[in-house]
Automatic annotation (TrEMBL):
Pfam families: Flagellin_C (PF00700), Flagellin_N (PF00669)
Organism: Duganella dendranthematis
Major localisation: secreted
Recorded family membership: Belongs to the bacterial flagellin family.
Segments forming domain Flagellin N-terminal: 4-136
Protein's recorded name: Flagellin
Length: 284
């Protein structure tokens, strides 16, 4: 039907131009940003999932840094424990030498001086801190309170992802032997009580060897946790990318198609507008 009020062909062409223009704009946005989802309108459910995955990825990245810091802490703790083993081993040797009948009193006095020096050095070593915090003992505390609490490592993105590393359980007896001499006891520890010192130093060596074993176990666990997180992070980021990232092959084809549709619909709109001229020609 020819009418000057309603041009159905023009209306259809206008709708086609609008749809093609909108599709072309969407394709241009996706190709220019690299993201398939640029607003909630693009994929509401997908955006919600991707947001959670992105937060999880960010949390795992921080947790991986935590683990690396934890491994560094364990390396320092192991170094301290190794130094303690070395010190007590030397003190053990001195006690064995002092306990022998061939050692004169003058010799014992000389050995005593080195033993005391090593004793106070051991106290300095055990008070080593990491990032301002004591690793093993608080030298200002008394009795069993000297032992620091177990370490808690945050190794994941949730509150339940915690690794408790108790590297001090082997020290419960250590503070009562190798480091528990009073000043009066130190005065004649090798000159009069060398045999007791041998036993005490043996216990201390065993205790600190246990600490080294504990630090190694915690370090290995942290290393496994790091490798697991690295794999999970890669998979999570890949999942996020599949939701959010633009598929350039598909979107390039969509852009070409929408551009062709825009050209075709614009051409048809131009032709449909000429229909009014045909209607007017009937009454001219």
């Amino acid at each position: 039907m020819l009418s000057v009020h309603t041009n159905s062909a023009s209306l259809s062409a206008q709708n086609a131009v609008t749809r093609a223009s909108r599709a072309n704009t969407t394709s241009a946005t996706r190709l220019s940003t690299g993201y398939r989802v640029n607003s909630a309108m693009d994929d509401a459910a997908g955006l919600q999932i991707a947001t959670r995955l992105s937060a999880q990825s960010s949390g795992m990245t921080v947790a991986m840094r935590n683990i690396q810091n934890g491994i560094s802490l364990m390396q320092v703790a192991d170094t301290v424990a190794g130094s303690m083993v070395d010190a007590f081993s030397r003190m053990h040797d001195l006690a064995i030498q002092a306990a022998d009948a061939s050692t004169t009193q003058a010799d014992k006095t000389a050995l005593q001086g080195e033993f005391v020096a090593l004793f106070w050095h051991a106290w300095d070593v055990v008070a080593t801190t990491y990032n301002g915090e004591s690793l093993y003992v608080d030298t200002g505390a008394a009795g069993s309170d000297k032992l620091m609490q177990p370490l808690k490592f945050q190794i994941g993105d949730s509150s339940s992802d915690v690794l408790t590393g108790d590297i001090r359980s082997s020290l419960l007896n250590t503070l009562g032997v190798g480091l528990a001499y009073s000043n009066s006891q130190l005065e004649d520890v090798l000159t009069s009580h060398a045999s007791d010192a041998i036993e005490n130093m043996s216990e201390a060596i065993n205790a600190w060897a246990g600490v080294r074993s504990a630090t190694g176990a915690v370090s290995n666990t942290l290393e496994h946790a790091y490798n697991n997180l690295a794999t999970m992070l890669s998979n999570t980021q890949a999942a996020t990318g599949r939701i959010m990232d633009t598929d350039y092959a598909t979107e390039s084809a969509n852009a070409t198609s929408s551009q062709m549709l825009m050209q075709a619909s614009t051409s048809m709109l131009k032709q449909s507008n000429s229909t009014v001229q045909l209607t007017l020609s009937l009454i001219s």
